[in-house]
Structures
1.
Amino acid sequence: MSQPAIKINAVHKNFGALHALKGVDLTIEPGEFFALLGPNGAGKSTLISILAGLITPSSGSASVMGFDVVNQYQQARQLLGVVPQELVFDPFFNVREMLRFQAGYFGRGRENDPWIDEILEGLGLTDKAHTNMRKLSGGMKRRALIAQALAHKPPVIVLDEPTAGVDVELRQMLWEFIKKLNRDGHTIILTTHYLEEAEALCSRVGMMKQGEIVALDSTANLLNKFSGKHLRLTLGDVVLPAGIGSLMRHHEKGIYTFALSDMAQIEYVLSTLRSANIKVLDMQLSEADLEDVFMSLVGKSS
Amino acid sequence: MSGLKFSDQVIVSSFRGPWTLLKKELLRFWRVAFQTIAAPVITALLYLLIFSHVLESHVQVYDGVPYTAFLIPGLIMMSVLQNAFANSSSSLIQSKVMGNLVFVLLTPLTHLQFFLAFLIAAIIRGMVVGLCIYLVAMWFVDLQLANPWMIIAFALLGSALLGTFGIIAGIWADRFDQMAAFQNFIIMPLSFLSGVFYSIHSLPPFWQKVSQLNPFFYMIDGFRYGFFGKGDVSPLISLTIVGASFLVLAWITLRMLKSGYKLRS
């Protein structure tokens, strides 16, 4: 029986008076492309640091492919690659040297070189392989940071905000490479502020708020469960008929946004407006996105 | 992945992992050898030139040993100790401030492997600097080697002790100025007041007692015994004190690393 890629059991973490994680449970299966979302301070990075062994949980347990991150940390870390959020680098070495060192710490030697070449190529770093880390541009440093986490070919890869401050071209290239890794069987866990990225890439989403997981489902289910479609109507300065007021979510300068759970409600809204002699000046229909789900779950302060 | 294959991998990584970290630490100072080796050699030679010129005819130390010859082993050992400390402490503080220490913390390396890699790199840096000063100093004075094994034992244990102290300082300090305080208020006074430039028998009795509380004194005196076959105290007492100090500091360092003090939270 295969072990979950990640299993987090009732994990709590206190930093003095701050209760950063309040009993987090989470299971991620091998091969998943999972997004962990949440506002700053929600506890995402603390959770990742616990998996990486940088932070010890106050209570509860976490494991990588069945290996406890505290008691069996050597095996757990061998199976995990973590891309740190901060742009850190070693100024003494070039890109290829750093990757060789990083693989070496995990017990990998020259036999790992073809994999290093593959990473360099996949991340567009081949012609920078002999450039000192200090001399790389910000975007290139970010690629090298990702390459370092992959150097020992870990089956489970955690990317903590990998595209923060990264240009569109690099983001596209990065996601193509990560998608390929996922197709090859690597489990990917991603935290990001770009919700459209999570929506496009991830099959399952966990949302955190104030140290707790407040939503955990497939991306499709979350989108269906929370919003459906948005209908934006330009009506001008009117008084809405009572029947459709409850569907209205937002209104500004004569533009009314209605949240609809199914297509049949479009006809209901339009016929109600017709009966009230209100003329539709413009109409726009859009799918709800993860941002709507995110805002409805974690956007409101509690 | 089968259990057997995985455990094989763990065994291989238990050798290759720390070896890689050691190799990286050695390359780190070798890449900047001008600063990490040439500079301390020049500093030691300047001390040698100035002090031997000024004091050669004024200071009488051991019978039949010229002051310049007396001075050289002390300067060599002082440089060995200072550079062993500088290697582990500066590597750790730099990678902590830069943030790249995380790449080592994410690996399966144990606290003992981490300790050994930093320790051995510090010993090698200290030894290389000491050897260079010795080779250059041979131009000035024909040094005898009364007990080469004592020389090696004190150089090894002394650099191990200071390398370990450097790891403690590197873990404890969060900023460069804290590290500078360690250097300027602990390492420098202890090494300058250890009998590098004089025999403690030339001091008043009170300051002789104070000097005997300084662990650097035993390292310098024992190392010098290896050259001349005489010292201020018995070399076996010095060896015991230096060895015991190393074991105590190594134990403290391993406890700090195992608990993740200031490195993991």
2.
Amino acid sequence: MALTLEQVRHVATLARLALTPEEEQRFSTQLSAVLDAVAQLQSLDVEAVEPTSHATLAESLLREDVTRPSLPPEKSLANAPAKSGTSFAVPKIIE
Amino acid sequence: MPVSDFQPVIGLEVHAQLLTQSKIFCGCSTAFGAEPNRNTCPVCLGMPGVLPVLNQRVVEFAVRTGLALECTVKKTSVWSRKNYFYPDLPKGYQITQYDQPICEHGRLVIDTPQGEKVIRVRRIHMEEDAGKNVHDASGGQSLVDLNRAGVPLLEIVSEPDLRDADEAVEYLKAMRDVLVYLGVNDGNLEEGSFRCDANVSVMPKGSSTYGQRCELKNLNSFRFLKQAIEYEISRQVDVIESGGKVDQETRLWDVNKGVTRSMRSKEEAHDYRYFPEPDLPPLHVSDAAIDAAAKALPELPRAKLTRFTSQYGLPAYDARILTAERPLADFFEACAAHYADAKKLSNWFLGELMRLLKEEGTPLSALRFTPAQLAELLGAVDKGTVSANAGKDVLGEMFRTGKAPADIIAEKGLAQVSDTGAIEAVVDDILAKNAGEVEKYRAGKKQVFGFFVGQVMRAMKGKGNPTLVNDLLKKKLGD
């Protein structure tokens, strides 16, 4: 199943990736190959098999509703490219 | 076609912050009002390599809410990732539930001018809240506070069963009452811990196909919800009337201008590419847990309202106010156990007590007097020991000091004179002093009666039992 360049660009935009025209071509081919592989699986008859959302059979582990110490804000913000007080600073969000 | 030829169709999505101590997937505090980013850790900051661990109280609250809204609680539900980029979403995705939510197919009953109406609840799911953006007034940047990131939310989605803005408001109020009764949410629209989006469309009356819908945001009061929906209905009708078509889009309620406006930035983001959350296995809820939650459900607002009208014989108006909040309803019932005339008790609640609570800003939990004391005061008014007016003063004093009503009546000399002999003496005296007026009265000028009452009361410093004063005056004047 061939993925159009249009679809590649849409996915790239959603993932915030800036692709060159060459990359768009290359990923179109590569992503199409992935889709082909999935299409092959889809030809199998799995009518009687329950869908699997997870590979492990782990039971959900729950925690008690108790608080634990958080990081000091200096640490939370240590990797921030920009900050103001104890807030992360980002380019102005325009609505 | 005028607006009246169109049928609005409305569905609401409610987001309710759950009253847990800690966040949904980590141990950070959910307390409101902390310094920015004080309640953050590697999990809710979205650091690489961390894993979410689900807070069991969140599941309990979701099950409780689902049962209260008569949903099917699913024994297996699945977590999903909703992918989008925004500065307040540290991981680049929100952990939520998508195709397999924890609860489905519920209902909530509301009141409409035509009577009761059932609004179907499509689904309830659990998810994490995002952080908060503050737009720096001074400069070209926005500030991000992630204290709210990871606070647990319930999203409750109705079917498009609402037909006008008033029904939407009734639904939202009823939903808030239920969540607050259940103790899962504080119901605070202004602070944003109880939020609502509205999906609004219009179609020609009699049509069976819904029109294109718009999603309205920023509806942080019941008034804004009503105004925004009404504005949006007329906007959509105008668009159709002028030959255009309504675009499916997200629109923001602009409080200052009183209009909804398009949020174009949200458009492309609607492609969320959901997939199952690999870091969390499917959630299993046991039958035993569901049964236990069902047994522990409190009486819900609507059931309580119905019971207040039947058990206490109260008018619906009284019952509605008394049951609006659980602590008030509980206090009323505690008082009713000591005092038989529920309507009279209700009058004191709706009048003096609620006025005092409002004026003094006191929560019911901090009341200084007991139900038995309130009953004692009402009994004193019934017996004529104090007048109804003086009773109000006594209640105010009980409210402020917690002293027993009998003590207050004695201390302040508020006791009413109900001794017939004492009143009769005053009445005789007044009539003797005002022979001219008595003559006029007997000649048919009946309005002079009020003058006599006033004179007697003044002579008795307002403490004469008004019923006895009236009776004696009438008797003496020969009526």
3.
Amino acid sequence: MDLYLPVANLSVNALVIILLGGGVGLLSGMFGVGGGFLTTPLLIFYGIPPTVAAASAATQVTGASVSGTLAYLERDGVDLRMGTVLVAGGLIGSLVGAGLFELLTAWGQIDTVISILYVVLLGSVGTIMGREAWASLRAMRAGMPPPPRKRRHHPMVANLPLRWRFYRSGLYISPLAPLLLGMGVGVLTMLLGVGGGFIMVPAMVYLLGMGTQVVVGTSLFQILFVTIATTMVHSMTTGAVDIVLAGLLLLGSVIGAQVGARFAQSVRPEYLRLLLAGIVLLVALRMGVDLFIRPEEIYTVQ
Amino acid sequence: MIRAYALLLWLAATLLPLGAAQAADPRLVPDVSNRAIDIQYSFTGEELLLFGAILYPGQRLPDDRADIVVVLKGPVRPIVLREKQRVAGIWVNASSIRLRTSPGFYAIGSSRPIDELVDERTAAIFELGLRNLSMSPTGFSQAKKLERFENGLIDLYRRLGLFYEDPSAVEIREGVLYRARIPVPARVPVGNYRAETYLISKGRVIAVASRDVEIRKAGFERFVALAAQRHGFLYGLSAVLLSLTFGYGASAIFRRR
């Protein structure tokens, strides 16, 4: 079933896009991630222009994170104060990202930067996640309790001036730390079309030392608002959000997410994390290899 | 009064010889199968039929065969063309040129290969053939580099279906009726197109005629594209609302089960 995308200016097979959204949704339901890090590269592989892919993927992540955010809010699993600081940082970050986007586009380096960022981020996150899941699996097999995590924030964070109390997270730290973290993730959301949960969650745990019961909820809260902001900024600057493309992705992903969430309850979380790490590393590898082999198109028009 | 008569007389004197000359040369009556191509949800490209008649004065066919060249040309726009090169192992955009008047679409069909019909100079004057498009590069660059980039662009657009060349696209029936099919791909840029027909005999262009074709987005697609361009804020807001509705709706439906 061919469908014309009015902003991307090309026609795609609607079924393929819905299935793609469904697959990503399945993963996001299983692992509690937005899945933008998969949507954007897959859309680019399919032939959608990178800008349109990143912008529309961000819109899709909004839909993927709304129900999760509401669920965590109901269960009091969100540190609203921390979330607000993160969102504020994210808003600044998305504006910085918009500026960077324009600059890199003018230089003609946006595609390369997007690819390199993906390889570095996904590569390192995938490696960390995989190693950890592997270690806890081995401990489980040996019948030992999983190695306990030490909960402390990074010394760099402790050295920042100004301190606020974040009761739900159990922290007394400078708000500049989450502000900067939010900013960094906001830039990535704008450039890569990712929610940034795969960076946010480890950063919250290892850099800020937040209590685990509010980490996922607060991360979802931040992702929801920052992807909304990103959609708005993209609409008003690059004009690259394709609402038809986003709609197709959403149709697949919201259904996939529900199925995935059900499936996740019946599988051990260690296996899930190992699987996710594998997928993340595969995407990173594919993008990394693409950087080094001769591209199909030497010439591009802008 | 006298003045008006003088004017009429003068007009007649100047126009008559011209009319006579026109009468001696053949005339083209061109048309296209579709004056306005609408891009809508299921648009996967279209085939445009360029056809028409050659009217010879006195309805007498000349002894030697005349040829027809049809050109469908899209709106020109300024572009930046970038070239990837290997830098420190990875492929990055390393070099670029600006072209002020690059057509977003150009298709040429003829009854015989262009180089058999006219000499290079004539082909260049009438911009017949992909190599003869004048794209107005700006800034100083070496002729070699320019040629390399132009070849790159032609190759790229050819594979996208945006440039098209077929030396046997035109079929001429009994020397007076011609027709040619030009494929228009889905990624065709919108705008005002010109369908031009050239009648060529003995290396000379003896008649030219053209028709306008409009390619536009229509209906919902037009509405969306315009909204994205002109009302970024409202467009973004609707995209956000759409995704919120989808996300919330799905979880509400699944929870009820």
